[in-house]
Amino acid sequence: MIVYNKQLLDNEVLTDEADALCKGGFISKEQKKFIEKELPVLKSQKNILVRIGFFLLGCLLFGSICGAISLFGLSAENTFFKICCYIFAVVGFAGVELLANQGYHNHGLDDAFILNALLCLGAAIGITTEGYEMVIAFFVAVGALFIFLRYLHVISMLVFCLSATAFLFFGMFEFGDIGKAILPFTAMIFAGVFYFLTKKMMNRLNERYYYNGLLLANSFCLVLFYLSCNYLVVRELSAELLGTEVKPGIDIPFAYFFYAFTFIVPVLYLVQALKTKDRLMLWISFLAIGFSIYTIRFYHSVLPIEVALTLGGIVLFGIAYFSIRILKEKESGLTFKPDRINHSDSLLNAEALVVASTFGMKPEVKPQASPMEFGGGGFSGGGSDGSF
């Protein structure tokens, strides 16, 4: 299924680990450069600004190809309009296939062809179905999943998650007001099921090339699970979808459940993140806690904004100060000491790095200069030149 040479993908993993080990001070820059020289990798671009530049260049190239094709189809106006987006989608898929065969991966050019292909696919289905959102979301999700599995494109996994969620939402709209009313609970169950499914797939993953995409999907499920029953989201969507107007003294149905959910879930995320040392979940929990506070202030302004910000800053400062005091002396687990290495599993892959590369490199140690110099004579005895 994967279009790329797996040996090159393995080499890319090893060079990434070498870079992490170099940043941690475990190998020298010379050793890192030697590894990168000896291990051929795919044509990728790690500099985000350069990658954006290549993406814009790829969009220009894609637009030029589609424009040239459109010149030949102008004679058949209405017919060409109905099929042009399908042709453009084929151009996008053919372009990314050609780039992949030439070794381009996460380069910017391939990003442009992939995202434009998905956009044209959605537009084509929309023209054919006259804007049937549920069908559009389904085909875009299928296309994005195919691209992720074949080209290991992580952004396509995000497109798949958004499209699958849109498919669920539009599917619930088909049931009318009942579907809209139970949509928060349906989305919560959907996110929970797929969170544990992606977690199980990550733990049993044989091909590590899919790990980053599954990690993104897993994190997306955490965000969707929290937002699905957040009080602000539920109340505003109820007003938008059902036309429900919440009058003073009256609240939405199951309001206490949504209030409790809004504050309990971020705390559970925080506890689980600290327990499993999951940094990504930790950041999500912080964002969720902040959004929960915003949710309450959106409807219940207990204090003036300047007083609330001041008190919040004092509380956060106190938490940070005492956390640092407690954790600064710890050497393992949760600690305030800086990481010597970016990735927690890099040391585990160090052995694989050495074995796979089979370089047999050893760090160079410069011997300390001896305080006594030998040779040449002139030190109360015979030297190498025979003089005294």
From TrEMBL:
It comes from the Bacteria. The chain crosses the membrane at residues 52-74, 80-100, 112-128, 134-152, 157-175, 181-197, 209-234, 254-271, 280-299, 305-324. Residues 367-388 are annotated as: Disordered. Keywords: Membrane, Transmembrane, Transmembrane helix. Signal peptide: none annotated. The keyword Transmembrane helix applies. Residues 374-388 have a biased composition (Gly residues). This is DUF2157 domain-containing protein. It comes from Flavobacterium anhuiense.
